[in-house]
Specification:
There is one protein chain. It is built from 13 helices and 10 strands. The chain is an alpha/beta fold. The chain has 2 domains: 202 residues, 3-Layer(aba) Sandwich (D-Maltodextrin-Binding Protein, domain 2), CATH 3.40.190.10; 95 residues, Periplasmic binding protein-like II (D-Maltodextrin-Binding Protein, domain 2), CATH 3.40.190.10. It has a 5-stranded mixed beta sheet. The chain has a 3-stranded antiparallel beta sheet with strand order 8-5-9. Strands 6-7 form a two-stranded parallel ribbon. The protein is globular. It starts with a helix and ends in a 29-residue tail after the last helix. Keywords: Iron, Metal-binding, Pyridoxal phosphate, Signal, Thiamine biosynthesis, Transferase. Pathway: Cofactor biosynthesis; thiamine diphosphate biosynthesis.
């Protein structure tokens, strides 16, 4: 009995976080890839554990991460720019806390062997392999018009099959993420060329938002701050240690080609996607979001809460909350 009391007293003195971690859930916008590396690094390096958190990354499904968040299925979500802006424009109760990529990762690609294409105007009358969204039509039409062409083209919806179709000559052009499909094309030695969106009338944008609901933020401000601070540490470490971060991600996922993960992380780090001069890691540029939201509205892509097409975007200041960065 003489030895039991001190042990019991010591146990009772331990902080509660040593006994129980607070659980939070996270929905991803796609299957695990380098966009999500900060979460995996934060888990592996113990940043979430230090913050008293147990993070449950939900299995990717056909339901968009933004829809899962808005429905209260997840506490946090990783969202594409289009998904976030579209859902928020429809007045869903979601709030962006962070953005991963400080500059556009998307681009329009075509075969380098196609001598009929030198500029976006040459895409008129060609066949596009797409993914089934209004955004694509607005994007491509704007680029062709900005180059003086007629925005008329054929579309076949192929999803991720678009890249193989482009490689075998079944289609003339498609869209890709330079930090993933672009890296994969290089590894496969595919002769491809590309056009940058912002060179042809499309607003430059950030991408890869992490968000929560306004209600969850209001009820759990300290929890949100803890999760986001640990996540920021994960992405910062990954940007500084791309090779090690790639290894951590490879161990966590199921990647048929680990070289793709490594190559993608190298490009993200060297290309200044996560770390940008004059911007804190994860910092949202409200002006960029406003310009893209206005472009989408003017292009007829967005709908309001009533399901009617929005013609303009009002004040978007309530779309974001980065107060956790000040804590």
């Amino acid at each position: 009995m003489k030895t039991t009391a001190p042990i019991l007293a010591a146990a009772l003195a331990l902080p509660l976080t040593a006994h129980a971690q607070q659980e939070v859930s996270l929905a991803l916008d796609w299957t695990l890839n380098t966009n999500h590396v900060g979460f995996i690094v934060a888990e592996e390096n113990g940043y979430y554990d230090e913050a008293g958190l147990e993070v449950d990354i939900l299995p990717y499904s056909d339901s968009s991460s933004t829809a899962l968040l808005a429905a209260g299925v997840s506490d946090f979500a990783y969202m594409s720019s289009l998904s976030f802006i579209s859902t928020r424009a429809a007045e869903a109760d979601i709030v962006a806390l962070w953005v991963t990529m400080q500059k556009e990762t998307g681009r329009l690609v075509y075969s380098g062997d196609n001598d009929d294409i030198d500029s976006p105007a040459d895409l008129s009358g060609k066949t596009y392999a797409g993914f089934g969204t209004k955004w694509e039509d607005a994007l491509i039409s704007t680029m062709i018009e900005a180059d003086g062409g007629d925005p008329t083209f054929d579309t076949v919806t192929l999803g991720t099959g678009a890249y193989e179709a482009l490689a075998n000559g079944s289609v003339d052009f498609t869209l890709e993420v330079s930090t993933w499909e672009g890296v994969n094309s290089e590894l496969l030695n595919r002769n491809q060329k590309s056009f940058t969106y912002a060179d042809y009338g499309i607003p430059e944008q950030q991408n890869g938002y992490i968000g929560t609901t306004g209600r969850f933020l209001a009820e759990n401000p300290d929890l949100v701050a803890s999760f986001m601070t640990a996540t920021q540490r994960g992405y910062a470490w990954a940007a500084e240690n791309p090779e090690e971060a790639a290894d951590i991600l490879i161990d966590a996922g199921d990647f048929p080609n680990p070289e793709l993960v490594t190559g993608s992380m190298e490009l993200i780090a060297s290309g200044g996607y996560i770390e940008a001069e004059g911007m804190e890691i994860g910092e949202i540029d409200e002006a960029k979001v406003a310009r893209m939201a206005s472009f989408l509205a003017e292009s007829g892509v967005l709908t309001g809460a009533d399901g009617e097409t929005l013609e303009e975007i009002g004040d978007i200041s309530g779309w974001f909350d980065q107060s956790w960065m000040d804590e």
